[in-house]
Specification:
The complex is a heterodimer of chains A (115) and B (114). Chain A has 115 residues and is mostly beta strands. Helix content of chain A is 0%, strand content 53%. In chain A, strands 2, 4, 5, 9, 10 and 11 form a six-stranded mixed beta sheet that branches. A five-stranded antiparallel beta sheet of chain A has the order 1-3-8-7-6, with no helix packed on it. The chains are: A mainly beta (115), B mainly beta (114).
């Protein structure tokens, strides 16, 4: 099935640094979701975006729905050790695009934070 | 507490045996999903159900079967026909299949075939 292009694949940063990751698609999406997965656990929803240009924050996390509707960005400010994990983007194509009820997933960005 | 439960957390089976993974939710969600996750990879959809007594194949349904007899339950059977069943299995649910498609996940079941 189709997958999103998520980058970078992995990041190793120092505590306190800001982090930025993104997802791109060749299709127009009407929903973007960002999840975090801790080792051995299920993904947890961080932020949901439903409108082009939308900018939403959740604590130190900020995500944006790209104005082209083909991309989304997630930023983490002032990283801390508990930010370690894998971050996934997921999107849903616009209505009438075929199988639009299914989420399409990125392959994840693995984040490591050095205390 | 409302949420999604999966059991067991770890499961071992011998090659050639069928095994059923449990998924229960008390969120009153209509839609439920099963994903498979392999190391270093994203989530791949096995089956999904938008309503009781109805389900559709996802991208990798071969070797798996599901049932949706109750709204809160969506068990997944990994059959002996699945060539490479060792993986981390995740169950999710959402309110429905409409515009709000936020999926909420259970803790996962790690299946190992010996």
């Amino acid at each position: 099935g189709q997958q999103l292009n998520q980058s970078p694949q992995s990041m190793f940063i120092q505590e306190g640094e800001d982090v930025s990751m993104n997802c791109t698609s060749s299709s127009i999406f009407n929903t973007w979701l960002w999840y975090k997965q801790d080792p051995g656990e299920g993904p947890v929803l961080l932020i949901a975006l439903y409108k082009a240009g939308e900018l939403t924050s959740n604590g130190r996390l900020t995500a944006q729905f790209g104005i082209t509707r083909k991309d989304s960005f997630l930023n983490i400010s002032a990283s801390i050790p508990s930010d370690v994990g894998i971050y996934f983007c997921a999107g849903r194509r616009r209505a009438n695009a075929g199988n639009n009820r299914k989420l399409i997933w990125g392959l994840g960005t693995s984040l490591a934070v050095n205390p | 507490d409302g949420g999604i439960t999966q059991s067991p957390k770890y499961l071992f089976r011998k090659e050639g045996q069928n095994v059923t993974l449990s998924c229960e939710q008390n969120l009153n969600h209509d839609a439920m999903y099963w994903y498979r996750q392999d190391p270093g990879q994203g989530l791949r959809l096995i089956y999904y159900s938008q309503i009781v007594n109805d389900f559709q194949k996802g991208d990798i349904a071969e070797g798996y079967s599901v049932s949706r007899e109750k709204k809160e339950s969506f068990p997944l059977t990994v059959t002996s026909a699945q060539k490479n069943p060792t993986a981390f299995y995740l169950c999710a649910s959402s309110i429905g299949g409409g515009e709000a498609n936020e999926q909420f996940f259970g803790p996962g079941t790690r299946l190992t075939v010996l």
